[in-house]
Amino acid sequence: AQSVTQLDSQVPVFEEAPVELRCNYSSSVSVYLFWYVQYPNQGLQLLLKYLSGSTLVKGINGFEAEFNKSQTSFHLRKPSVHISDTAEYFCAVSDSNDYKLSFGAGTTVTVRA
Amino acid sequence: GAGVSQSPSNKVTEKGKDVELRCDPISGHTALYWYRQSLGQGLEFLIYFQGNSAPDKSGLPSDRFSAERTGGSVSTLTIQRTQQEDSAVYLCASSPSGGVTGELFFGEGSRLTVL
């Protein structure tokens, strides 16, 4: 089974500043990668996913992530955040032949005016 | 509603009592997952149902935990003789297919507090 490390538990950021959330996973031959977001008092929802193809993946709300196989990373970025991006963000990974997702511990992003 | 529905949203119980948590997945979704989210930790896989296949129970932490899915739809997670370490948010998710190439749709969770 995969393991996932989110290197930052809390990320405070000012509105309109860029943000990067780091995610590393244990090595495997072939993986699927995901970022989920959990807004306050809501369920998790998919932000973006990498299955194959281009290593740069674009998701909803202006987020993007880059798959780096050599570094086993899948960092999430947004060039300019809004107050409404305040949420908890979870990186998740699965082996391509497995239906179980392994989640990281989450990164809480707090956007301040 | 059209989303995954979980009940109760909050449950406070005394140590040693049994609890049942319910999940109504999105209609037509064949796959159903239970995860547990403890404070400061990631989501921990508990159990997976796919259609009429035998469930994958490999994530259940002890024999006090059990789950069933009736008619390929509603699922109930039961925790017997609850312990304080069972306090967590229990999340249910469904998916239209069995694999994870698609999206998991999560409910808002059931927060369990064991006193």
How much helix, percentage-wise, in residues of chain A?
under 10%
How far apart the termini of chain B lie comes to 32 Å
Unreliable runs of chain A, pLDDT <50, ≥5 residues? none
- Fraction of residues in helix of chain B: under 10%
Following the backbone from N to C, one meets helices and strands of chain B in this order, namely EEEEEEEEEE
- Beta-strand content bin of chain B: over 45%
Q: What is the chain-wise order of helices and strands of chain A?
A: EEEEEEEEEEEE
User: What gap, in angstroms, lies between the N and C termini of chain A?
Assistant: 40 Å
The geometry of chain A reads as: globular
Overall number of strands of chain A: 12
Kindly estimate the percentage of residues of chain A that lie in beta strands according to DSSP.
over 45%
Give the biggest beta sheet of chain B: 6 strands, mixed
Q: In DSSP terms, counting alpha (H) and pi (I) runs of 4 or more, how many helices of chain B?
A: 0
* SS class of chain B: mainly beta
How many beta-strand runs of chain B? 10
Radius of gyration of chain A: 13 Å
Oligomer state of the chains in this structure: heterodimer
Average pLDDT across residues of chain B? 92
Describe this structure in words.
- The complex is a heterodimer of chains A (113) and B (115).
- Chain A has no helices and 12 strands.
- By secondary structure, chain A is mainly β.
- In chain A, the strands form 3 sheets. In chain A, strands 2, 5, 6, 10, 11 and 12 form a 6-stranded mixed beta sheet that branches. In chain A, strands 3-9-8-7 form a 4-stranded antiparallel beta sheet, with no helix packed on it. Chain A has a two-stranded antiparallel ribbon with strand order 1-4.
- In chain A, 35% of the residues are buried.
- With 115 residues, chain B is mainly β.
- Chain B has strands at residues 5-7, 10-13, 19-24, 31-37, 43-50, 65-69, 75-79, 88-95, 105-106, 110-114.
- Chains A and B meet through strand 5, strand 6, strand 10 and strand 11 of A and strand 5 and strand 9 of B.
